[in-house]
Specification:
Distance between the termini: 16 Å
Shape: elongated
Number of helices: 11
Pfam families: Hydrolase
Protein name: Haloacid dehalogenase
Helix content: 40-55%
Number of domains: 2
Largest sheet: 5 strands, parallel
Radius of gyration: 18 Å
Strand order of the largest sheet: 5-4-1-6-7
Structural class: alpha/beta
CATH class of the largest domain: Alpha Beta
Number of strands: 7
């Protein structure tokens, strides 16, 4: 059933929701294929996801590299530096159907925003590669710039303040369950993203006129 109050704002995660992120695309052809597969595996034996998480929280590459070298050795640290410096290559495209969804929401009078766990040093690659995305979003909160992470409450509260959001008429769309739960705990509506069609249907179910 549609909510009694109309949806006024939709806040989107980036990687896996608005933009496709593929770790291996930044390393293919530069690093041995078997090593790339291990680096990008879900169990992440070389810690790249952990080191990215440190940067998402506000650490700079120059601060993280000594940690990588100490824990993984100089060769892996050099690969991590290359990966971060070529991060745009890990963004092969926008997620199918999401540009159209953003445009349809805006045409319906719904405000669209971004809220992402992303390093301040590499976030520019998203808009460098997809300038139309920057033009569609009305603002984005980037964790690395703010030194706070989803799903912690302060980053959602910051978005509320910065974008003048009313939680009861705001929807958060993210592909990670704990991040959706973090928003819902503060009174936002939440949608666990799988694809653009599913997000559109879920937004319609909440009363968005798209």
């Amino acid at each position: 059933m549609a909510d009694a109050r109309p949806i006024t704002d939709v806040v989107f995660d980036f990687c896996g929701v608005l933009v496709d992120w593929q770790c291996h695309c930044a390393l293919d052809g530069h690093v041995d294929a078997g090593l790339v597969e291990r680096i990008c595996a879900d169990d992440d034996p070389y810690g790249f996801f952990h080191y990215e998480d440190l940067m998402d929280g506000g650490m700079r590459l120059d601060d993280v590299l000594p940690i990588v070298e100490r824990e993984q050795g100089k060769d892996i640290a050099a690969i991590y530096r290359y990966y971060i410096e070529h991060y745009g290559d890990a963004l092969p495209g926008m997620v199918a159907g999401m540009e159209e969804l953003l445009r349809d929401l805006k045409a319906a009078g719904v405000h669209v925003w971004g809220l992402t766990n992303w390093a301040e040093e590499t976030f520019h690659f998203a808009f460098d590669r997809f300038p139309r995305l920057e033009g569609l979003l009305e603002g984005t909160v980037v964790s690395g710039a703010e030194r706070m992470h989803k799903p912690e409450a302060p980053i959602y509260r910051l978005a509320e303040e910065r974008f003048s959001l009313d939680p009861s008429t705001t929807v958060f769309v993210d592909d990670t369950a704990k991040n959706v739960a973090g928003a819902e705990a503060l009174g936002w509506h939440g949608i666990r993203f799988t694809d653009a069609a599913g997000a559109r249907d879920a937004l319609r179910g909440l009363g968005a006129a798209i």
